[in-house]
Design goal:
- The chain is built from seven helices and five strands; from the N terminus they run αβααβαβαββαα.
- By secondary structure, the protein is of the alpha/beta class.
- The chain has a single domain, classed as Uracil-DNA glycosylase-like domain (Uracil-DNA Glycosylase, subunit E).
- It has a five-stranded mixed β-sheet with strand order 2-1-3-5-4, with helices on both faces.
- The longest helix is centred in the C-terminal third of the chain and has 22 residues.
- It starts with a helix and ends in an 8-residue tail after the last helix.
- The relative contact order is 0.17.
- Bound molecules: uracil (URA) and iron/sulfur cluster.
Length: about 200
């Protein structure tokens, strides 16, 4: 892996910038080769134990959906808006998201993805640079522009499917949009240049 990312990984793994460091087992920096990025919300129980993103129940579902949309997990660098697990999987707090933001900013700066796929309201809110948590229905199914100037598609968080099974189809649909807009040209030839 990239040396700059490895250096940043060490910083994140030792980070004490917000109170989540007191209850975490391991910080979850992220993994995957890229060129694309996928950004979730926060590590869950399994992620906290293993130190890897999306390796629990939501991760299994994510893998299924990726396969259905014809994309490989390893073609994304997968991370979260907060790198440490909130106790009992509660929502991340605004001050925790704020404290952790520089790490996401730096990951994007190093990776320079041609496009970003965002999973869930918290990730969507951060990547759009909004103050209030967004409602996903208003932002799905189109190509948006992230705070980084990089194209962005936002969809539901895979875990939301456990509460509402109908959302699974919507996520697949949005993943297919990502495929058509960005991923297919990556397969066909050179990686499209970042528009940022
Ligand atoms: N949910 C997330 O948002 N991220 C993970 O890494 C796992 C579950
Ligand atoms: Fe640091 Fe982010 Fe973990 Fe908070 S959540 S301790 S800011 S790495």
């Amino acid at each position: 892996m990239n040396l700059l990312l490895e250096e940043l990984r060490k910083q994140v793994e030792d980070c004490t910038r917000c109170p989540l460091h007191t209850s975490r087992t391991r910080a979850v920096f992220g993994e995957g080769d890229g060129p694309f990025m996928m950004v979730g919300e926060a590590p869950g129980r399994q992620e906290d134990i293993q130190g890897r993103p999306f390796v629990g129940q939501a991760g299994r579902l994510l893998n299924e959906i990726l396969a259905e949309a014809g994309m490989e997990r390893n073609h994304f660098f997968i991370t979260n808006v907060v790198k440490c697990r909130p106790p009992n999987n509660r929502n991340p707090r605004p001050e925790e998201i704020e404290a952790c933001r520089p790490y996401l900013d730096r990951q994007v700066e190093i990776i320079r993805p041609p496009a970003i796929l965002s999973l869930g309201r918290f990730s969507g809110t951060v990547l759009l640079g909004r103050k209030r948590i967004i409602t996903l229905r208003d932002y799905r199914r189109r190509v948006l522009k992230s705070i980084y100037g990089i194209p962005l598609i936002i969809t539901y968080h895979p875990a939301s499917v456990f509460r509402n099974p109908r959302l699974r189809e919507h996520i697949v649909e949005d993943f297919r949009l990502f495929y058509r807009q960005f991923y297919s040209s990556f397969l066909d030839g050179p990686v499209p240049g970042s528009s940022g």
